[in-house]
Every structure is written in structure tokens, then in C-alpha cells.
């Protein structure tokens, strides 16, 4: 089963997505997600200029060999552009293999290990009443676990907080009446935000105390510190949130320094999640072997596809570490579908992030996964269960968009 063609498809149904479509000589097609938020065209060029020519004529069934060929063959290994490109090829080949087998993809990964994937949604609000409304809306939609992000007194905009309901101007997800937060803005240069760590550390524990008082002790609550703290600040935050029993505290320190998590771990029993900016199993070695984290955040889209992420999860399982796959709208429905097939099959599933795509995005991809009673269920059709509508795509051409940058109050650049 030889690969006849591979096309790099870039479309922007409210936000930019990069998709790889591989077609075999028999006419079987497979899709892979290669979306790298804010740097989309770098991956599109890597695929079109450097990988597509290598794919033509290769055996579409040889997934592992193709993965090794592209990873080792590049010589310049790892990094988000390379690994998103490999992920797209890998996912598209799994899609093809499952279609040829006539089975939903998860059946090729060992079959079903659970009824569905527990997901968490994003609730946010500048002030507590708006946050409560957002949490209630998510509960009414069926969510059974909630990420909580709030405004901070003195800061005009904060990571993870939707500016307002129906806030369409300047946001990438269009006019949907939702509280969901989309940080990438369509602008020539990134928007600049301001940050005050001390104000954040003073404010956050009171928010979680208020949410626990309002919604009770049972609801799983998550929080993302978005890589902004020093190790001792992160330790202080984890300790101060312990009374509110978080499901996890995410991205407390910049992810490059794995040893930073050692300091955090010494001081708090709040579970830690990290890895959405990691690309390979090597990025986790120290964190796993020293048991410094509890959940793995890498998405299929950025970690070398189903093959790459499955290997990371198996390694994590040795240390009782579970999955917590990144899944906001900066991975396409193709990437999310791959995560759902993987999550239903692996033994050490933890939770799946699920921030619903816009109607325009779903019209383009028509994903077959379903959300009910707080869980995602995989499509039962052969393959990934996602399609790509070229007519819809043509109506949504690429538009440059950037994630914000972040400065401290004195103007110094800080981690966004
Ligand atoms: Mg995060």
C-alpha cells in the first residue's frame, strides 16, 4: 500500500489549522493535525518542502519505520516544528491503517479500556459572580471537572480569562456565545499583556476557597499557572491551594528546567501536571524517574503523533503517572480525535482537556467523537472518524494570528 500523494492544508475557520492529508495509491486517505499555534506556516513549510517529497512511494503501513526515518533522518532532532510535522504524518498513517482494517482507530491500539474519557472544561471570570456563572454553564452542559481561571486585581487582562461573554472582536473563535478563552489574536504583532506574580499569589487561594464554598467539595477543580512562577513561588502556590483539593495544578514553572519541579515537590502535595510544550519522551525523563509530576500534558499533535505519545504514556505508567492531554481549540478536531482514540485505549488515562471547537471548525472537520455526561466517546467509524471539507476550507483562508507576549509591571519581558 504505497503513498501516492500528501497535501498540506491550511485553513482558518475562526483560527488557523494545519492539516496533512495522505492518499494511498488505492485512494485511501488519512488526516493528521500539524497545528502549532502562532507559528503555523513554519510547520506547513517543513511538511511541504521537506517531508512530503520523502513520503511519496513509501509503504503506508510502515508507521514505526516512517516515524524513525523522519525522526532520526532529520539529524536535527526534536523541537515543536519537527515533532508536529512527524505527528501529522504518523496520525494520518494510523488513520489509513484503521480505515483499511475497517476498525475505529482505538481498536488497533488495544481496544477499549474504559467507557469514555472524563474531560474538563474551561471556566473563567474576571470577578467571582462571572466565574460562578461560567462554572454553572459548564455543569449544565454536562462537564464533570472544571478548570478555574480568574482575573487579578490591578491587571486588565489575564491568561485563561475570557474578556466577556460574546466577546467576538479580537478573539479568534468568532461569535459563539461561550465563555471560552482563545488567546491567539489576529494581529500583525502579538498583543502585550502585563503580569504581577505577587498579586496573583495573594489572590488565587481566596478564589478557590470561594469556589469550594459555592460548589462544594466534590467537583474536580483544576488550575493553570502557565509557566510564570519561580520554583519557590510555585511551591508557595501549591501549598496555599492544598485545602481546596485540586485535581491538578498545571504548568507552575517554565518547562525547560525539569529540576525546578523538585523544589516544588518538596513543599506541596497538590498534584502537578506539565508538558504541553514538550515534544518528546526525553523531555519527561527526569520528571518521570524522580516522580516529580502526576499528569502528562503533551498532545498527539506536538509529541510525534500517536506513536510518540503512546511511548510517553507507557513510560509514565512505570511511575504511576497518568495522561492529561492538552486539548483546547489550538489542536484541531483531527488532533483531538487522535487523543480520544489513544485515551480510550491506554491503561493510565487521567483526564482529557476539552474546550469545544466552534461551529465553523466542526463544519470543516465533521468530527465523529461525541460529548455526553462529562465524557468524550470515540467515533465508531473506521479510522479517526474525522473528515476534511475542501469547499468549507476554501471559504476560510489563513490569517496571521499570534499568542500574546507578557511583561512585568516594570516592562521586563516575562513568560506568557
Ligand atoms: Mg497549560
Structure description:
The chain is of the alpha/beta class and 416 residues long. The protein folds into 2 domains: 3-104, Enolase-like, N-terminal domain (Enolase-like, domain 1); 117-382, TIM Barrel. The chain is 36% helix and 17% strand. The chain has 13 helices and 16 strands. It has an 8-stranded parallel β-barrel with strand order 4-5-7-8-9-10-11-12, surrounded by 4 helices. Strands 1-2-3 form a 3-stranded antiparallel beta sheet. Helix 6 (197-215) packs parallel to helix 7. The model is unreliable at 166-179 (pLDDT under 50). It binds magnesium ion (MG). Residues 224, 226, 250-251, 276 line the site of magnesium ion (MG). Residues 224, 226, 250-251, 276 line the site of magnesium ion. Residues 128-271 form the Mandelate racemase/muconate lactonizing enzyme C-terminal domain.
Q: Can you give me a brief rundown of this structure?
A:
This protein is of the alpha/beta class and 416 residues long.
Amino acid at each position: 500500500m504505497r503513498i501516492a500523494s500528501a497535501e498540506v492544508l491550511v485553513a482558518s475557520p475562526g483560527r488557523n489549522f494545519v492539516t496533512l492529508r495522505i492518499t494511498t495509491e488505492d485512494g485511501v486517505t488519512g488526516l493528521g493535525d500539524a497545528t502549532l499555534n502562532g507559528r503555523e506556516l513554519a510547520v506547513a513549510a517543513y511538511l511541504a518542502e521537506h517531508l512530503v517529497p520523502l513520503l511519496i512511494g513509501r509503504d503506508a503501513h510502515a508507521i514505526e519505520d516512517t516515524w524513525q526515518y523522519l525522526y532520526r533522518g532529520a539529524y536535527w532532532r526534536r523541537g515543536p516544528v519537527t515533532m508536529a510535522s512527524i505527528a501529522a504524518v504518523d496520525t494520518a498513517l494510523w488513520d489509513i491503517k484503521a480505515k483499511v482494517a475497517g476498525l475505529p482507530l482505538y481498536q488497533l491500539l488495544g481496544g477499549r479500556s474504559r467507557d469514555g474519557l472524563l474531560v474538563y472544561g474551561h471556566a473563567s471570570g474576571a470577578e467571582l459572580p462571572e466565574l460562578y456563572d461560567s462554572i454553572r454553564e459548564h455543569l449544565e452542559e454536562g462537564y464533570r471537572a472544571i478548570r478555574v481561571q480568574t482575573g487579578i486585581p490591578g491587571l486588565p487582562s489575564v491568561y485563561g480569562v475570557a474578556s466577556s461573554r460574546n466577546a467576538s472582536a479580537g478573539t479568534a473563535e468568532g461569535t459563539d456565545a461561550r465563555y471560552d478563552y482563545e488567546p491567539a489574536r489576529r494581529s500583525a504583532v502579538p498583543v502585550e499583556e502585563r503580569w504581577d506574580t505577587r498579586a496573583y499569589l495573594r489572590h488565587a487561594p481566596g478564589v478557590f476557597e470561594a469556589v469550594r464554598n459555592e460548589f462544594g467539595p466534590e467537583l474536580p477543580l483544576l488550575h493553570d499557572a502557565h509557566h510564570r512562577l519561580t520554583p519557590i513561588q510555585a511551591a508557595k502556590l501549591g501549598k496555599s491551594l492544598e485545602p481546596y483539593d485540586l485535581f491538578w495544578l498545571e504548568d507552575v514553572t517554565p518547562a525547560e528546567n525539569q529540576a525546578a519541579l523538585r523544589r516544588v515537590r518538596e513543599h506541596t502535595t497538590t498534584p502537578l501536571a506539565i508538558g504541553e510544550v514538550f515534544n518528546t519522551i526525553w523531555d519527561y525523563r527526569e520528571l518521570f524517574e524522580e516522580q516529580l509530576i502526576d499528569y502528562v500534558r503533551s498532545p498527539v499533535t506536538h509529541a510525534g503523533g500517536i506513536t510518540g505519545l503512546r511511548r510517553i504514556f507507557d513510560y509514565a505508567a512505570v511511575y504511576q503517572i497518568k495522561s492529561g492531554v492538552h486539548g483546547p481549540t489550538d489542536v484541531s478536531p483531527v488532533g483531538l480525535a487522535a487523543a480520544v482514540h489513544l485515551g480510550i485505549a491506554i491503561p493510565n488515562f487521567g483526564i482529557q482537556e476539552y474546550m469545544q471547537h466552534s461551529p465553523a471548525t466542526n463544519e470543516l472537520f465533521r468530527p465523529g467523537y461525541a460529548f455526553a455526561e462529562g465524557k468524550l466517546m470515540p467515533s465508531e467509524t473506521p479510522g479517526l472518524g474525522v473528515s476534511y471539507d475542501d469547499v468549507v476550507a476554501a471559504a476560510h483562508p489563513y490569517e496571521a494570528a499570534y499568542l500574546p507576549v507578557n511583561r512585568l509591571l516594570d516592562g521586563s519581558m516575562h513568560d506568557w
